[in-house]
Write a structure and sequence with these properties.
The chain is α/β, with parallel strands linked by helices. The strands form 2 sheets. The protein has an 11-stranded mixed beta sheet with strand order 1-8-2-3-7-4-6-5-9-10-11, sandwiched between helices. A 4-stranded parallel beta sheet has the order 12-15-13-14. It is globular, with a radius of gyration of 19 Å. The two termini are about 30 Å apart.
Length: about 325
Amino acid sequence: MCVKTIVTTSVLKAASFIRKGETVAFPTETVYGLGADCFNEKAVMKIFKVKGRASDNPLIVHIHTKSQIRLLVREITESAYRIIKKFFPGPVTVILEKNDLVPHLVTAGLNTVAIRMPSMKFTREFIKKCGVPIAAPSANISGKPSSVTWEHVQNDFKGRIPCILKGPEVKYGIESTVVDCSVEPPVLLRPGKITLEELQRIIPEITLVNKSSKIKSPGMKYRHYSPEAKVIFWNTENRKLAADNENSAYIGLNKPDASFRKIKICKSPEDYASSLFSFFRECDREGFKKIYVQKVQRTGIGLAIMNRLDKAAARQ
């Protein structure tokens, strides 16, 4: 069904859609989210339908103040308390045992709920005006690169959602770090801007997720972050194949010794992370068939970059 999509900078107007049981795309410091009242199952179902998202893929609940955590969980564990104290508000999500108020649709049937408090004041003001915590995955068609501008959201969802809240520029361009604090020791499920090394300073015993772990976070089970173009890791073996290819693009930290029609040289790993999804979307819009990507060390923000690149390349 086609609907009129309103683009607004008014948090009050956008919040009015949430209160009416509708979905709203909104900015955060990480990527744009597609949100609904987390306690309204009919509204949350609209997120899954419009994204084409599997119902066994849990959502993240966004809050505007730490006191809202108590509306969602049975208890706050010691590891979660440390992360909340150090990094909330910020680009990190904690997973805790949910209470009976949180619908199973939000948590994909799990007894745990993922919670984060965005650092963007504009976003927190929007959530405050909504009057309820907001369940929201990234605002993109499932499996595709996340949206880091309101135009990206419009390209994916114009005529399919009633409102896009246009706000300040996204800062990080990569989804939040997700830590499962419902278990001991806590487990890093999805790397992001808050790095493993930063987490280890306050929780030395934290471990990295393994492939056999239970799916408790977005980005763990299904293909994610993939453009229409084929994503290929750049190395010496494929240099000859890529050279002078008019249908190929490249992104990385170092200039490649081959010819590409489109090249993005990032100034730092942080720039690489924040530029990745926009570059993927540009390449799709311009009709590229292949995107060569440079590998980075899996330390610091590099762990998050490689997580996204591994998943983007895995669909081929």
